[in-house]
Design brief:
- The protein has 2 domains: 6-204, 3-Layer(aba) Sandwich (Rossmann fold); 222-438, NAD(P)-binding Rossmann-like Domain (Rossmann fold, 3-Layer(aba) Sandwich).
- It has a 6-stranded parallel β-sheet, with helices on both faces. Strands 11-10-9-12-13-14 form a 6-stranded parallel β-sheet.
- The protein is of the alpha/beta class.
- The chain contains 18 helices and 14 strands.
- It starts with 7 loop residues before the first strand and ends in a 5-residue tail after the last strand.
- The site of 1,4-dihydronicotinamide adenine dinucleotide (NAI) has 27 residues, from helix 4.
- Uridine-5'-diphosphate-glucuronic acid binds at residues 127, 154-158, 218, 221, 225, 259-261, 263, 265-268, 270-271, 332-333.
- Substrate binds at residues 155-158, 214, 259-263, 267, 333.
- Its EC number is 1.1.1.22.
Length: 443
């Protein structure tokens, strides 16, 4: 690609998704401008610094901002002149409701419309309720800007976000019918040329299918996790071991072992809110019953956090008041500093609510946790967390926790009781070192 031939890209919303998308598109050789209303985020990104923890992001941010292929702004008028505009703003759960809050999407589109020119393409990446793209397409048509809309859902996983963006396992384009659709597809093909040249599967479809692919993928993943957690509940009353069960059913290629890790369940900024928004949208469409099982998926998931708390209380003879408990993990998953709807943080907060002296640690998520729950105590080192603890609960399976030496850990604690909320420790080794080990769905 020669510099002047490159399609100019804008990315609207530079959070966990947008910042990675902007930097990755620049890494692939495109000219990119990222826009966000959060000025602190823009300052950090402009300095080539990632405003959150994501492996690989700092490196590509630095190289792309230094090369001039990537810049950031909080002035929306600077998006004028870009040809393809990716929409990556948040779609959180509405306060007190299940439905998605589309305020940010609508505000972003309104602020973008005056910057659009004939033939520009707006590409939706945010996860939205089915029907949103058609509504936004009508709004853009009515604006008279002559711009087009495509929906191109994103499937990246935090912790692997850069790799998943540069080498996605599939691409989905939701495009309008006819000539306009072909124009949209050609622009997307140009942007994703590298992935397409590597035989990345491509599904070209209508808006509604593209929107539904995204929410159904997340609903399926959430269901898979709650399925194994439901088996964990049955294992707990029968003496069976859910980890062996998962291995055994996972050998069936039709089932597969991935996403069958029982524990404190799923969290994060997506799976929980996406299944709730899907339920709410299905109800609006008069098809609530079709996805009624997602309410059960959610309920099973939330019970598992409670189960971990109950195990701690039970292991300490029924009460945790004024007892020091080491909570290992705060992020919703390892290799992330994201604490949105984190089961780990929830367990820490619940134990604190029962009067325990919670001391929590996490390699990356302390700052975010302390902002949200200043009532908790945090420490940077596992050793400080363990020192004098009457019970230890592992709730995020960071490598440094998985690889803890049970013999050395035992020398620090007051009571050798460990609750493995992620079934990530070697139970045999911990028991052999003299610990009382309790897993999730394990004898
Ligand atoms: N985080 C993830 O791994 C993935 C997220 N998604 C979806 O992507 C969307 C964004 O998610 P995250 O990046 O996690 O959220 P986030 O909260 O980290 O980022 C959203 C960003 O949008 C900005 N914003 C809000 N209103 C704006 C406006 N009017 N103009 C410009 N910027 C604005 C916010 O300041 C924030 O920086 C959601 O719909 C989510 O479901 C999809 C796949 C993966
Ligand atoms: O829409 C999104 O934002 C993204 O949501 C998830 O990605 P992510 O939230 O980054 O993390 P996952 O790896 O899916 O894990 C989600 C949660 O499930 C939990 N989990 C995962 C797997 C498992 O076997 N058991 C389990 O409890 C994790 O600990 C974590 O809390 C999807 O995997 C992505 O494909 C999707 O793009």
């Amino acid at each position: 690609m020669k510099g002047d031939d490159r399609v100019k890209i804008s990315v609207i919303g530079c959070g966990y998704l947008g910042a990675v998308h902007a930097a990755s598109m620049a890494e692939l050789g495109h000219d990119v401008i990222g826009f966000d209303v959060d000025e602190a985020k823009i300052r950090s990104l402009s300095a080539g610094e990632a405003p959150f923890f994501e492996p690989g992001l700092p490196e590509i941010l630095k190289s792309a901002t230094a090369s001039g292929r990537l810049r950031f702004t909080s002035d929306v008028t600077e998006l004028k002149g870009a040809k393809v505009h990716f929409l990556a703003v948040g779609t959180p759960q509405k306060a007190g409701e299940y439905a998605a809050d589309l305020t940010y999407v609508d505000l972003a589109v309104e602020s973008l419309i005056p910057q659009l020119s004939e033939g520009d393409l707006l590409v939706g990446k945010s996860t939205v309720p089915v029907g949103t793209a058609a509504r936004l397409a009508a709004r853009i048509d009515a604006s008279g800007s002559g711009a087009l809309l495509a929906w191109n859902p994103e499937f990246l996983r935090e912790g692997f976000a850069v790799k998943d963006t540069i080498s996605p396992d599939r691409l989905v384009y939701g495009i309008p019918e006819g000539e306009r659709g072909l124009v949209a597809k050609a622009l997307l093909d140009e942007i994703y040329a590298t992935a397409l040249s590597n035989d990345t599967p491509l599904v070209v479809t209508d808006y509604a299918t593209a929107e539904l692919v995204k929410v159904s993928a997340n609903a399926f993943l959430a269901t898979k996790i709650s399925f194994i957690n439901a088996m964990a509940e049955i294992a707990e009353v029968t003496g069976a071991d859910v980890t062996q069960l998962a291995d055994a059913i996972g050998f069936d290629a039709r089932i597969g072992r991935r996403f069958l890790n029982a524990g404190v369940g799923f969290g994060g900024g997506c799976l929980p809110k996406d299944i709730r928004a899907f339920s709410a949208r299905a109800e609006e469409l008069g098809r609530g019953e079709s996805v009624a099982f997602l309410k059960e998926v959610d309920a099973i998931n939330l019970r598992r956090r409670q189960r971990a708390v109950d195990l701690v209380v039970e292991s300490l003879g029924g009460q945790v008041y004024q007892k020091k408990i080491a909570v290992l993990g705060l992020a919703f998953k390892p290799d992330s500093d994201d604490i949105r709807d984190s089961p780990a943080l929830d367990v820490a907060v619940q134990l604190h609510g029962l009067g325990a002296e919670v001391v929590a640690t996490d390699p990356e998520a302390i700052a975010n946790s302390a902002r949200k729950h200043p009532q908790l105590s945090f420490t940077e080192t596992v050793e400080d967390a363990l020192h004098g603890a009457e019970a230890v609960v592992v709730v995020t399976e960071w490598k440094e926790f998985r690889e803890l030496d049970p013999v050395a850990a035992k020398a620090l604690v007051a009571n050798a009781i460990v609750i493995d909320g992620r079934n990530c420790l070697d139970a045999e080794a911990w028991r052999a070192a003299g610990w009382t080990y309790r897993g999730m769905g394990r004898p």
